[in-house]
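Page 37, continued from 36.
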């Protein structure tokens, strides 16, 4: 039997029992829709988590400290072997060498220091943190009140909301545009002692200083809360300004006890890499240079595993509806055999082979699977849009930014349609085999 004749005959048979076949196809569509809706929720949540972590700079960042300050966080070091010997200082020269490494886009220190703010003739104790220009895109400033720094060297400040409420309990937003005075302790190197053969300074002194700042924004969270920060910042200034202030920090006492204290050492450096795939190589290189390095790649691998298991369970539960729909296909085709026994007998009497009859029922099952798969993908996509719409209404009532919790990528569309057709063909195997085994003589006698 020619393929064209086979297709025309299958379509004619589907049109004759249009209501029953439509209900069966609708059952397939509902099964595919539930599968697509559940998987789209898993994929959407994974994309949301990955996007938020990527924008925060955690995926492409490496936390570097002197070897004696290694923050292993209870984790055994299993990466590249590190050289033995005294720990290398993490100073300005080391920073330049790290900046010259391949795939490194940015290297900056963590600058945080306690200070006192004077506003409206009242003093307020707080902690100042330096913020890089690239932090503008890390997601912490989304929905902020006011604006980001006008430039990397601008004498401007951004307040954390709790500290802003401390300065102005009633209307903290009115602080934007106001001036504050930052009082801090500046570190100044002392000259070398007379007659000393060492040209290095004899230490450093602490000198009180003041810096006027203008408030330009208020945010909810701490954008400078990196690996070692733990969200301690409440007032944020451009990192370049923070470095210019030369404010005394907690590691200054450690530097004083070392030889040559005129060379200031960093307590830690954050290294930004051009992509998450380059983090491992840069991290190994830093360890070979004699520094302790840590990234969040291990945590991201665990996150990927969790979402993979989550997607698996969603796919299993979504497939149950499609399995139930396959029973409807079996029922529809078995009923078709009983109704078309005489037609099958005529086909065999005219020379149709068993494989032709089997292929006829396979085409009918595949057609229902294809139509049900396409319809199910569309319904599943609409369900996902409805979930997004409802979620954003819920978030808007709580003054939270809109997000997308579902996603239907092209591979999911293709996989859902192929899976629908495969399940339909599998469901049609028994009816097709039963129709092919019919005796044409008995079939022609059937009324």
């Amino acid at each position: 039997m020619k393929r064209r004749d086979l297709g025309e005959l299958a379509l004619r048979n589907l049109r004759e029992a249009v209501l029953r076949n439509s209900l069966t196809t609708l059952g397939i569509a509902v099964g595919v829709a539930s599968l697509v809706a559940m998987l789209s929720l898993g994929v959407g949540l994974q994309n949301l988590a990955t996007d938020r972590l990527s924008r925060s700079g955690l995926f492409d960042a490496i936390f570097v400290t002197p070897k004696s300050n290694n923050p292993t966080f209870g984790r055994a070091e299993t990466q590249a072997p590190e050289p033995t010997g005294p720990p290398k200082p993490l100073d300005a020269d080391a920073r330049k060498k790290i900046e010259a490494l391949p795939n490194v886009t940015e290297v900056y220190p963590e600058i945080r220091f306690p200070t006192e703010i004077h506003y409206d003739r009242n003093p307020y104790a707080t902690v100042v943190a330096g913020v890089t220009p690239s932090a503008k895109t890390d997601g912490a400033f989304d929905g902020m009140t006011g604006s980001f720094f006008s430039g990397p060297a601008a004498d401007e400040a951004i307040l954390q909301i709790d500290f802003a409420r401390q300065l102005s309990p009633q209307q903290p937003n009115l602080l934007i545009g106001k001036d504050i005075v930052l009082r801090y302790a500046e570190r100044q190197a002392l000259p070398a002692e007379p007659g000393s053969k060492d040209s290095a300074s004899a230490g450093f002194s602490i000198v009180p200083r003041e810096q006027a700042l203008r408030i330009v924004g208020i945010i909810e969270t701490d954008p400078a809360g990196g690996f070692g920060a733990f969200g301690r910042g409440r007032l944020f200034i451009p990192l370049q300004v923070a470095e210019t202030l030369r404010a005394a920090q907690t590691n200054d006492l450690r530097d004083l006890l070392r030889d040559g204290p005129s060379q200031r050492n960093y307590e830690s450096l954050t290294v930004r890499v051009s992509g998450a795939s380059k983090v491992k190589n840069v991290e190994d290189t830093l360890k070979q240079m004699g520094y302790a390095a840590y990234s969040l790649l291990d945590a991201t691998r665990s996150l990927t595993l969790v979402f993979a298991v989550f997607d698996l369970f969603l796919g299993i539960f979504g497939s149950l509806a499609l399995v139930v729909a396959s029973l409807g296909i079996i029922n529809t085709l078995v009923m078709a055999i009983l109704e078309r026994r005489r037609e099958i007998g005529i086909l065999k009497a005219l020379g149709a082979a068993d494989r032709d009859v089997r292929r006829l029922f396979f085409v009918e099952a595949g057609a229902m699977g294809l139509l049900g798969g396409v319809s199910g993908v569309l319904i599943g996509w609409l369900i996902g849009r409805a979930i997004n719409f409802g979620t954003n209404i819920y978030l808007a009532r709580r003054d939270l930014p809109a997000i997308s919790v579902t996603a239907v990528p092209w591979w999911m569309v293709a996989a859902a349609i192929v899976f629908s057709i495969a399940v339909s063909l599998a469901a049609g195997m028994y009816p097709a085999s039963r129709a092919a085994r019919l005796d044409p003589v008995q079939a022609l006698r059937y009324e």
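Residues 81 and 288 are 7 Å apart (CA to CA). Flag for discussion at group meeting. The first strand starts at residue 61 and ends at 66.
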